[in-house]
Every structure is written in structure tokens, then in C-alpha cells.
């Protein structure tokens, strides 16, 4: 026998050329040692995660989970009842902090526990500390895992359950044959609980469960009674789904998803019927790109875990046949990776070509596969160590590998700390407050999209911010359950089919299958009749519904958009006065520098939106101004043009960052907002001449059209090279007509980036 450093006992090569490890149950001393390893690793991860915990509402679906946990409501499909229930109990127990901070803190603790289980699993397989340190730090301090562990997201709990399933693979393999049925029952219970959180865990469950079942049948180690008990335990573990009907009947949550008072309603939610079963997004006609998804995972796993991790993982898979006591475990882990990646890449219907942000939606689901990849990398380190130590008797090699593991972990922390330290990240809260502040008293805010809806709903219904405003989700009011479950909580929003007077004046389309069908023309009309101020965000309404466009307009008076009947349209003077009052506080205290956040994150997207929003009132006013063919004969139009130009200056101030060296950094793209600024300045500078003003107005109208075409085609993912050339051509014509623009270098022109 050869005693190796790292306390691993192996034998010299036998005739079968295999190395053997300890297969029997661990003695009491090792179990005690594992406990200390557990506490130390947990302390390390918790200390980092808790320090970085978001102090306010994070991005993603966090607001939905916080609201559901705070009010014992139901989150979006499939409901995540275990996470919601744990959050509800935790919020009741923790005596301090906002609802957002409380759930963020709980999630950080769960995330720290998940990374610790990765450590313990690797150590239990290898009994080699450097391997355990390497696997757990590479995984736990990768950007995806760290970022989604310090805000209220269900991924931490999913990571915990998947790591526990992999740990139970080791327990099952190391257990005596007569005890394996009991271990399988424990794994069945974990599997059922994991299905009460994120359903992607079913891919791990299918692999681990099939392997355990085949092993038990092969060894004749399970009876029919034990098999039935295993299935019953799995079913029992699904009990947290009782939270759905309990919430529907007793919670009275102000914001919930679906009607779960019937079995059909619960089943619809469980299978994600409203999202699309086995689909990532509920978009008809959007298919998955298997090869594109696979290429993205390959790039992302290298970026997240590092090339060294993949090399060690490959070393494990190619050398593990020498080590009979871990070979089966490694193959089961490899099968988990293969099944998960192949299935998910085939089913994930995300358009990766449209926006970088869409990749951020998809990349969150790589974390589950990265758990076994990290553990196999740790096993690969041990395999290489065993070969080298056994063949060449290298002294103190374990110290060198321990140093490597610590350096890799330190590198992960230094590389990702800035993007994952969310304790001072308030951009989501500020963005939501600005939207709510822009709505007059007793108004209604119609929101569309995950972030605007989730953020404003959380602030309104969990922090009781602006309790006089009703926040209504445009994308949910079309569901029949929305009125019965959410409608009673509204103070001002009016469902069109509730107004008898409205029925007499305007016909509403009614169908037998959908008796509550209506369009946004109906919504706008009924609120106008009732005298309720109606605001929307974002600028676009529900796709395909243009019923309102001929009668109503949406006016960008602030961070949200006011719905106005065209008969009540603002004059340009009225609009400028209102926008001037509302806009200045809307963006002044939001940091619009999107470069501070990961490019695929919600924070990056919101920062861009906040900056772009600052330009919209000026753009709207300029368009209205240049559409008026007789504007130049009005004696006060010079003052109006100055006001419009000052809006651009305010927008540029909002989108300008003063760097440490005193220089300025412009945050907006010059091919978009700058050209609007040039046109505004062009009109302002050349107002004194009627002929020149008319010429400038022509250029402004053409430029507006070209820019709208450019932005629309760019959002659709189409080639915009020719559109860009058209914009440059119009700009060149304006410069030729007004050559003084090229030499003017006053303060305002510099602020416009010209």
C-alpha cells in the first residue's frame, strides 16, 4: 500500500491496471471531518454572498418572487411554490429590512449552501482538499452563479437541489447494497421537492433516477413495496403545490398569476401552459436554434469557468477508467451534462440574433450544467495528482495543487466582484419610482414587459409606494382570470365590460369562448369617459392592436407616456410646459451609464432606456414643430425652439458622465440621438430667415423619417447599412446648406457631441 499526500489510500497497479480507492462506508472520524469542511466552506461562501446581497429590488423576475413571497401569492408559471413558501416564512421571521432585502438575503444563504454542497460532493469523491476548493470556487464565484445568488431568484434553490442530487449519487454508489433502496427513497424526496421549484431539474432527475432504478434491479436490491414507497415519497414531496389553492382562497394577494381554485387551473400553471410547455418563451413561431444554442454554451462555459476547468474535466473523463471506485459516479455526472445540454439547446426558443440581452435570458440556465462540470474538473485534478504521485513520487505536489486552486478561486473573485456586488445597486428601484412619480394622483399606469411591470408592481403593492396609483399589466388583462383574481384590488382601473353606459355607446366584441375580449380603444374610451388619467409604458402597446391609433395619441411627457384623445391634443406650448415640469426629476438621479453593468443584464438595458427616455420629449416637440408649415410666422416660435433645444441639452447632460480626469463621456450612440440634436440646433440657429427655416424644416422632417426607419429596422435585426448611408446623406446635405455648423464650437454644440 502507498500512502499519498492528501490522505488518499491507493494500491499499486494490479494486473487489471486499475487503481482502487476506498469503497466502504466512511468511518466516524471522516464524517466528523466532513462536518468541519462543511462549516468552513459555508462560512466562506456566506461571508462573500451576504456582503454582496442586493439591498433593493434586483433585476429579472425578482420582483415577482418578492411580491408572491410577501403576500403568499403565486408567481409566474410554474409558480415555484417551495421558494415562495420559504420566502413567506422567512419574511415573517426576519424583523428588519424591506421585502426585497429579506428575500435577497435568504437567496444569498441558499446560494452559499449550494456552493458548499459542490465542495462537499467533490471532497467526498476524492478526499482531496485542492479538488474540492477548485470545484466549489470555480462554480460558486463564476459570474452567473454569484450574480443570481445575491438577488431574489429561484436559480440558487435549483442549484442547491441539483448539487444535492449529485451528492446523493455518491451516497448511493458508496452505500452497501442492502441500504441503497433507502438512499434512493431519500433521492426521490429531494427530486419531488426540486420539482416544486424549477422544472429543469427533471433532466437531472431522469438520469439519476434511471441509473438508481437500473442499479437496484440489477442487484435485486429493491422490493415491489420499496418501489411503491419511492414513488409515494416523490408524490408526497410535491405537497408544496398546495400553496397555489391556499393562496387563491385565503391570501388575497394584490398581485398574483392565474386562478388556482380548480384542479385544471393548478395543472395549467404546473405545465406552464400560458408560457408554453417545454419552451423558454411564450412566442408563437419562434423555434429553437440547436447549433446556435450549443455554440453559445461552449463560449459561455469557457468564459464562466475557464479553459483550465474544461481541460481538467476532459482529463477526468479520459483517465477515470483507472479508478474503479469513482468511474460510475463520473459517468453518471457526464450523462447529466449531456442530457441537459442536448435537451435544453434543442428546446430553448430564444432569438439570439436580435439582442445581446436575449443571450442573458438563456445563459442563466447554463448554471445547472456547470455544477457537474465543476465537480468533474475537481475530480480531474485528483486524477492527475494520483497518476503523478503514484508513478513519479513527486513530493508536496498537493501543496502546489492547493495553491493553484486558491489562485483560481481568487481570480474568479477579482474578475466578478464588481459586476456581482449589488449592495449599492438601486437602479431598478429608482427606475420604478420615477415611473410611478410621473403618474398624477389617482391615475392608472398600463405597463408592458417584465421589468416595467414587475418593478412598478413590487413598489406599489409590496412597499406601498404611490398607493393612489393602479398598476395594470397589459399582457395579463387579456386572461379571463385577471379580473376575478386581480380586479378587486384596483381602485381606479375600469374593465370596459363593467360599464353599462359604455355598452350603450360603443359596441364591444364578445365571443362565447372569450366573453371579456376587448381592445385598447375600449380601454382608452372608458377611462376618458370616467375622467381617469391613463398612462402607459413603454411607448409600444400590445402587438397587433392598432385600434386606438386614429383616435388617440401617446405623448412622452415624462418617464411614462400620457394617453390623450386627439381632440384634446396638447399644443406645443402646453406640451413643453408640462414636459419641462415633469421630466427634470425623472432622470436626474439615475445613473444612465450602462457600461457599469454586464451587457446581457437587465440593469444594462434599463440604464440605456433611462437615457433614451430623456430625449423623447424633445423629439416629440421637434416633430410637432416641424410638421407645422406656418410655424415660422409665429412671433414666439424662437422661444419655443430654444425650449426644445434646452430639452436636448438636459438629455445630453443626463447622458454625460464626468470622468475622474475631468473629461466627459457621452453615453448615447452618435448615429441616433445626436442627429436629432443637430436638427434642433440647426432650426434654432437659422430661425431668423424664413427661407432658411423652411429649408431647415425640410431637412428635419426627412431626418426624422430616416431615423425612424433606421431604428425600426435595427430593432427588427435587419441590415441597416443602407439606412445609415441615407442618414449620413441627409446630414451632409444639411451641413452643405448651413456650413456654419461645421465650425461652431460653442458649449452647447460640444455637449451635443458635434
Write a structural description:
60% of the residues lie in helices and 4% in strands. The longest helix is centred in the first third of the chain and has 28 residues, at 99-126. The strands form three sheets. It has a five-stranded mixed beta sheet with strand order 4-3-5-7-6, with helices on both faces. The chain has three domains: 2-262 and 285-420, no CATH class; 426-587, no CATH class; 614-754, no CATH class. With 754 residues, the protein is mainly alpha-helical. The chain has 32 helices and nine strands.
Provide a quick synopsis of the model.
With 754 residues, this protein is mostly helical.
Question: Strand tally, please?
Answer: 9
Instruction: Tell me about the largest β-sheet.
Output: 5 strands, mixed
In percent, how much strand structure appears in the residues? under 5%
Instruction: Give the overall form.
Output: globular
Order of strands, main sheet, comes to 4-3-5-7-6
Radius of gyration: 30 Å
Low-confidence stretches: 1-29, 499-516, 668-678, 680-690, 740-754
Helix share, percent: 55-70%
So how many helices?
32
**Structural class designation:** mainly alpha
- The number of domains is 3
Whole-number mean pLDDT: 79
Span of the ends, CA to CA: 78 Å
Amino acid at each position: 500500500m502507498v500512502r499519498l499526500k492528501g490522505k488518499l489510500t491507493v494500491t499499486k497497479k494490479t494486473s487489471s491496471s486499475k487503481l482502487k480507492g476506498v469503497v466502504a462506508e466512511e468511518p466516524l472520524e471522516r464524517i466528523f471531518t466532513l462536518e468541519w469542511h462543511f462549516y468552513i466552506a459555508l462560512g466562506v461562501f456566506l461571508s462573500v454572498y451576504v456582503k454582496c446581497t442586493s439591498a433593493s429590488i434586483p433585476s429579472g423576475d425578482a420582483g415577482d418572487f418578492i411580491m408572491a413571497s410577501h403576500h403568499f401569492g403565486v408567481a409566474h408559471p410554474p409558480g415555484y411554490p417551495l421558494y415562495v413558501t420559504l420566502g413567506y416564512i422567512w419574511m415573517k421571521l426576519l424583523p428588519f429590512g424591506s421585502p426585497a432585502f429579506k428575500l435577497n438575503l435568504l437567496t444569498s444563504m441558499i446560494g452559499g449552501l449550494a456552493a458548499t454542497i459542490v465542495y462537499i460532493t467533490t471532497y467526498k469523491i476524492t478526499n482531496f482538499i485542492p479538488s474540492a476548493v477548485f470545484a466549489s470556487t470555480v462554480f460558486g464565484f463564476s459570474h452567473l452563479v454569484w450574480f443570481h445568488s445575491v438577488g431574489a431568484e429561484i436559480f440558487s434553490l435549483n442549484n442547491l437541489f441539483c448539487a444535492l442530487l449529485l451528492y446523493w449519487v455518491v451516497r448511493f454508489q458508496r452505500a452497501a447494497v442492502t441500504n441503497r433502496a433507502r438512499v434512493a427513497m431519500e433521492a426521490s424526496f429531494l427530486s419531488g421537492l426540486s420539482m416544486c421549484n424549477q422544472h429543469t431539474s427533471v433532466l437531472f432527475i431522469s438520469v439519476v433516477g434511471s441509473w438508481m432504478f437500473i442499479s437496484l434491479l440489477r442487484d435485486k436490491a429493491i422490493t415491489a413495496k420499496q418501489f411503491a414507497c419511492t414513488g409515494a415519497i416523490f408524490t408526497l414531496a410535491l405537497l408544496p403545490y398546495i400553496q397555489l389553492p391556499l393562496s387563491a382562497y385565503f391570501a388575497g394577494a394584490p398581485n398574483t398569476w392565474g386562478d388556482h381554485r380548480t384542479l385544471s387551473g393548478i395543472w395549467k400553471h404546473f405545465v406552464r401552459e400560458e408560457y408554453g410547455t417545454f419552451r423558454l418563451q411564450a412566442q408563437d413561431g419562434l423555434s429553437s436554434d440547436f447549433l446556435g444554442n450549443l455554440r453559445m454554451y461552449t463560449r459561455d462555459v469557457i468564459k464562466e469557468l475557464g479553459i483550465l476547468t474544461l481541460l481538467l474535466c476532459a482529463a477526468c473523463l479520459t483517465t477515470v477508467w483507472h479508478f474503479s471506485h469513482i468511474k460510475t459516479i463520473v459517468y453518471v455526472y457526464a450523462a447529466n451534462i449531456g442530457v441537459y445540454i442536448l435537451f435544453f439547446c434543442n428546446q430553448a426558443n430564444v432569438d439570439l440574433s436580435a439582442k445581446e440581452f436575449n443571450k442573458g435570458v438563456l445563459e442563466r440556465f447554463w448554471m445547472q450544467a456547470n455544477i457537474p462540470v465543476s465537480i468533474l474538473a475537481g475530480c480531474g485534478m485528483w486524477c492527475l495528482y494520483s497518476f503523478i504521485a503514484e508513478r513519479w513520487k513527486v513530493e508536496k505536489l498537493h501543496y502546489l495543487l492547493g495553491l493553484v486552486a486558491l489562485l483560481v478561486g481568487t481570480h474568479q473573485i477579482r474578475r466578478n466582484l464588481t459586476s456581482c456586488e449589488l449592495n449599492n445597486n438601486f437602479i431598478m428601484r429608482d427606475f420604478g419610482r420615477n415611473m410611478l412619480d410621473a403618474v398624477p394622483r389617482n391615475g392608472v399606469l398600463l405597463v408592458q414587459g417584465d421589468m416595467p411591470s414587475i418593478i412598478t408592481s413590487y413598489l406599489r403593492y409590496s412597499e406601498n409606494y404611490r398607493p393612489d396609483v393602479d398598476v395594470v399589466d397589459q399582457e395579463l388583462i387579456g386572461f379571463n382570470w385577471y379580473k376575478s383574481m386581480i380586479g378587486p384590488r384596483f381602485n381606479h382601473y375600469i374593465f370596459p365590460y363593467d360599464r353599462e353606459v359604455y355598452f350603450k355607446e360603443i359596441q364591444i366584441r364578445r365571443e362565447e369562448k372569450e366573453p371579456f375580449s376587448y381592445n385598447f380603444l375600449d380601454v382608452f374610451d372608458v377611462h376618458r369617459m370616467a375622467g381617469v388619467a391613463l398612462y402607459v409604458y413603454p411607448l409600444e402597446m400590445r402587438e397587433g392592436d392598432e385600434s386606438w391609433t386614429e383616435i388617440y395619441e401617446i405623448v412622452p411627457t415624462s418617464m411614462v407616456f400620457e394617453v390623450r384623445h386627439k381632440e384634446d391634443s396638447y399644443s406645443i406650448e402646453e406640451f413643453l410646459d408640462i414636459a419641462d415640469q415633469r421630466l427634470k426629476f425623472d432622470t436626474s438621479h439615475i445613473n444612465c451609464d450602462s457600461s457599469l453593468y454586464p451587457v446581457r443584464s437587465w440593469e444594462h438595458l434599463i440604464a440605456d432606456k433611462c437615457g433614451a427616455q430623456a430625449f423623447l420629449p424633445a423629439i416629440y416637440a421637434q416633430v410637432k414643430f416641424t410638421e407645422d408649415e406656418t410655424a415660422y410666422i409665429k412671433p414666439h416660435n424662437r422661444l419655443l425652439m430654444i425650449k426644445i433645444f434646452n430639452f436636448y441639452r438636459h438629455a445630453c447632460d443626463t447622458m454625460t458622465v464626468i470622468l475622474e480626469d475631468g473629461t466627459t463621456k457621452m453615453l448615447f450612440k452618435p448615429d441616433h440621438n445626436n442627429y436629432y440634436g443637430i436638427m434642433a440646433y440647426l432650426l434654432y440657429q437659422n430661425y431668423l430667415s424664413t427661407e432658411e427655416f423652411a429649408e431647415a424644416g425640410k431637412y428635419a422632417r426627412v431626418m426624422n423619417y430616416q431615423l425612424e426607419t433606421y431604428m425600426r429596422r435595427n430593432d427588427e435585426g435587419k441590415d441597416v447599412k443602407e439606412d445609415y448611408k441615407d442618414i449620413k446623406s441627409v446630414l451632409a446635405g444639411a451641413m452643405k446648406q448651413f456650413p456654419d455648423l461645421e465650425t461652431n464650437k460653442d458649449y452647447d454644440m460640444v455637449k451635443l457631441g458635434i
